[in-house]
Amino acid sequence: MTGMERVPMGPPWSVDLIADLHAGVLPPEVAAQLRPRVEADAEAREILQALDATLEDLRSLPPIPMPDHVAARIDAALAAEARPAAPVVSLAEARKRRNRRLGLGGGVLVAAAAAFGIVMVMSPETRQQPSNNAQPPASTSSAVTAEPPLALQRDELGSAVGEVLKAQNYGPLETPDRLAGCLQGGGITSSGKPLGISPINLEGKNAVMAILPAGLGQFRLVVLDPETCGPDKPEGVLEDETVGQR
């Protein structure tokens, strides 16, 4: 079967097909032949423009504070886990356990919110703003104030979607071109910059997690090894999965 035979006929085209074209998940040879036809059709072009506008709106949304009563319950649970016991559990470890319990549900929640044009960033630190008179504590070194990358297990990637969506930090990959080369090495097609990207620690290994669009209400989570990824290097892709509503 040739590439031409695989290209859906139209117009009209379904919204799902146009969304897949916009997300860059169609085979390259199909997308190359389909895009000029879709862009030449006024109705289909309006859908592409609406998808572009939706992504821009999502990126520009400010964080939404967590309700105080929810934050209080989480803080109380974290404090209980951090209370000295055998073995002693640090507050950071307690937060990690909380994220693990959320699991894929956190990723599905964000994906569902994105489908309705809303992103909820649930972070205890955002529920209170410091007063004008408050003075930030003095730091003695950058090592004290630097936030360590998210520490995740392979089955916890969905719980990190909310945090990574807020970031455009290429970390050791440094540039969009380097990211594009790493995605190419894994046979992953994507157009434009990722919805979110951030360094993470995957089971003790330094890595970079990128979130790519994967159709309406879905995200493609790709974890790359910055030391080995690149064109023609599929071993540099550590994880590749899709989360959200199907």
Mean pLDDT: 76
Count up the domains.
2
Please give the number of β-strands: 5
SSE string, helices as H and strands as E: HHHHHHHHEHHEEEE
Cα separation of the termini: 28 Å
The value of Rg in angstroms is 21 Å
| Binned strand content | 5-15%
List the total number of helices.
Answer: 10
Class by SSE composition: alpha+beta
Main sheet properties: 5 strands, mixed
In the predicted model, the low-confidence regions spanning at least 5 consecutive residues are: 1-5, 102-128, 138-145
Report the helical percentage: 40-55%
Strand order, largest beta sheet: 1-2-3-4-5
**What characteristic shape results from the CA principal axes?**
globular
Region (Disordered): 126-145
Keywords: Membrane, Transmembrane, Transmembrane helix
Transmembrane segments: 102-122
Biased composition (Polar residues): 126-144
Word description of this protein:
The chain has ten helices and five strands, in the order H-H-H-H-H-H-H-H-E-H-H-E-E-E-E. With 246 residues, it is α+β, with helices and mostly antiparallel strands. A five-stranded mixed beta sheet has the order 1-2-3-4-5. Helix 2 (15-23) crosses helix 4 and helix 5 packs across helix 6. The protein is globular, with a radius of gyration of 21 Å. It starts with a helix and ends with a strand.
Summarize the structure.
By secondary structure, this protein is α+β, with helices and mostly antiparallel strands. It contains 10 helices and 5 strands; from the N terminus they run ααααααααβααββββ. It has 2 domains: 51 residues; 154 residues, no CATH class.
